[in-house]
Amino acid sequence: MTDPVLDFAPVLELAHVTHAFLGRDVLRDISLAVMPGEVVALIGPSGCGKSTLVHLAAGLLEQKSGRIARRFARQAMVFQEPRLMPWATAEANIAYAARLAGMGRHAARDAARTAAARVHFDAADLGKYPVELSGGMRQRVAIARALVVAPDFILFDEPFTALDAALKRRMQDLVIAQVAQASFSGLFVTHDLSEAARIAHRVAVLHPEGRGIMGVRHLPGAPGSRDDEAVFALTRRWQHEDPLFRHIHDVDERRIA
Length: 257
Description:
It is built from 7 helices and 9 strands, in the order βββαββαααβαβαββα. By secondary structure, it is of the alpha/beta class. Helix 2 packs across helix 3 (105-118), helix 2 runs parallel beside helix 4 and helix 3 (105-118) crosses helix 4 (135-147). The chain folds into 2 domains: 4-73 and 153-255, 3-Layer(aba) Sandwich (Rossmann fold), CATH 3.40.50; 84-151. 33% of the residues lie in helices and 22% in strands. The longest helix has 18 residues, at 165-182. The strands form 2 sheets. It has a 6-stranded mixed β-sheet with strand order 5-6-7-3-8-9, with helices on both faces.
């Protein structure tokens, strides 16, 4: 049966993209597409250029060559660190993104409260400053800040790396639920195979030295439908039987800033 997602043009398309830093190519010949309503997990060993690629996709960096087509109306990004303004409350941090999108002060405040409720952030904590929040609470604020602008595309740059296993799982479930409810597409960078197996429709593997996408694997069922047994079976098969994932846990310290 044909996947209905594939009947549409990609909402994000990178075609033969190369990026250089200080005169040296760090990504070469990257081609990748994300379809409407799809989350693609981008994985690869540490230092291979995953974060650089997602920054290119977001337009935060400019490619040396190749083409990047962004066919979405509004994007948002969730970074490795929450990147909250320490002098602003949780509500003000969320509302700030809405103000940047052109909302008035009162509309931005209301939108911030609605976005906070979507990520199950307690309204009683909206007046607290980042230093008063736990790591999980700060990450909820960061996700709410992304959602407040009603994006149709979100880029996630390893947002849950610093969280413990239980909290990471709750954050993954939150993203899975929001993708289903809000119907946005996304590119999710991670080094965690289990996270990729839980959260994505497809997994793309970046070459250890940034020389293109080595391959793509489609995941069975929709994100949220795979139980722990299915996720474990998938990751075990990838690690032990699929050569595409052979270098996932390698580390090239020369390429890590």
